[in-house]
């Protein structure tokens, strides 16, 4: 299946979140309020949260989040490879979070416009 066929057959688009996010490795006993996602793995705890009032709680770099819209079933094969390949071709590093119904990618704020162009080049439409 060609890349545009996969995108079109699943009706996949994307939404750019307005918030700025930060990603941090925090202590296992540290309490973090308002996290978008937390991942505990092998004694490490990664937290993704929106920056509040323009101030970073962790001193991390500013990231923007893109969430994919449309039909992303659990047995969909090749979608993230397609997306990450298009972004890698433009030298854009990403942090991926997958949920039951969709995937989310975070990229540095400075790379957002290039990232949007990469996704549009795959045939995805930006959703409001």
Strand content: 35-45%
Low-confidence stretches: none
Instruction: Give me the secondary-structure category.
Output: alpha+beta
Please provide the ordered H/E string of secondary-structure elements: HEEEEHEEHE
Provide a quick synopsis of the model.
The protein is of the alpha+beta class and 128 residues long. It has helices spanning 3-10, 79-89, 112-121, and strands at residues 13-26, 35-41, 44-50, 63-69, 95-98, 103-108, 126-127.
Task: Characterise the protein shown here.
This protein is of the alpha+beta class and 128 residues long. The protein has three helices and seven strands. The chain has helices at residues 3-10, 79-89, 112-121; strands spanning 13-26, 35-41, 44-50, 63-69, 95-98, 103-108, 126-127. A hairpin with a 2-residue loop joins strand 2 and strand 3 (44-50). The chain is globular. The protein starts with a helix and ends with a strand. 17% of the residues are buried. The mean pLDDT is 87.
